[in-house]
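Help wanted!
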Amino acid sequence: MLDNSAQVFFLSWEHIWIVGLSLLIATPIGVPLGILITRHEQFASRVLGGANILMTVPSIALFGLMLPILSVFDMGLGKVPAVIALVLYSQLPIIRNTYTAIRNVPPSLVDAARGMGMDKWKRLREVEIPLATPVIIAGLRTAAVMNIGIAAIAAYIGSGGLGVYIQQGIERVYPEMILSGAILVSILAVIVDGAMAALEKAVTPEGIKVQRRLMR
Amino acid sequence: MNRLLGKLNRLIIASIILIAGVTAERTGLIEYLSDPYEYPVLFELFLQHLYIVTVSMTFATIIGIVAGIILTRQRFRRYAGVCMYIIGLGQTIPSLAVLALAMSFLGIGTRPAIFALTIYSILPIARNTLAGITAVPASLIDAGRGMGMPPLRILMEVEIPNAMQVILTGFRVALIINIGTAALSYVIGAGGLGDLIFTGISLMQTEKLLAGAIPVTLLALTADFLSELLGLLLVSKGLRLSD
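Answered by r_m:
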């Protein structure tokens, strides 16, 4: 593994890149959608149900189902289907967490903001979103960890990343390669999980932290 | 307006089915499925898949629930935090990595796959059993004790029924992950429907690919639906009303 440090670095980078890109695309879709369904409750169960169905589809089957559709545009294999699949899978945790977070903002606070003369947008921007951010980040964290695992599977459709070590290691019956792939992917997932947890803590407003300490 | 939406919905569903049908014909899926030499293979792989999932889920459910219950008993309660942490860590490990690790220690075949799937499915079940039972209100347990129930009866008649909803959610999550991961277990030689998907991808045979991917998806969706029904059966009515 040390002999191939350049390659390890490259594949890890590729892995992070795929996951990062998919989250960058998924967040601007999922968060507004989550906010939107708190405003129009009648769509909430439908949107969440739809995202839930997407989540239920096994990842390798999703790659398989997308392949014939995307191959019409000559993009059936490679990074494009991988990123699309990851974006789709990220939707459930992101939408669900945004939805519950915004709904759990105490009505008294929203009322207070209204009393201060804030309009709809200002209330959203200055009261509801800041209070909901930790939970939204928690959703992103779930999505990121899950995506690292699915990105490893995407090596089978030629997207690169650390899954390549697992795939080739299995094909060549080369245990060291499998082990290094599996361990690297796991370490990556654990590190990202930890980093996102730290981020979650960092964006929690000071007031909520005090409140939590008092609750205990 | 509502009626219009209902009609639109039906129109969309009908057109999806139509498009799916046309695509199936175009990609040769129907020809593939009606080939007398191919569908027994498909059937056999399906059964193999079902076998892997059933066996690993049976083990995982038993072990997971028992482990969860043991961890909530008074004597072991102080280890619960540590175990939660370990379970959380285990869940961040990707499924393919778990399969790969199982293969490098146990070799190829169905057994390592079942082993890996069992281990991987225990995590959500144990986690939710633990969380569910911990969340049962202390007043209910106290009431049970006041009625003179021994600890075992409190567990069977108060704690488990109240935690059932959460435990079932864990079971459902585990089952869905299990079905998807079982499709991957082809790469370590366990067979199952993943066989068709992976072969289809490497040979670029769309019909083969779809013949694997569609049943796996349907299997997962059916399992999801059935576990929801199971919830209606197992969770007591009073608890469902309070939601």
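OP: Thanks! One thing I noticed: Residues 97 and 114 of chain A are 24 Å apart (CA to CA).
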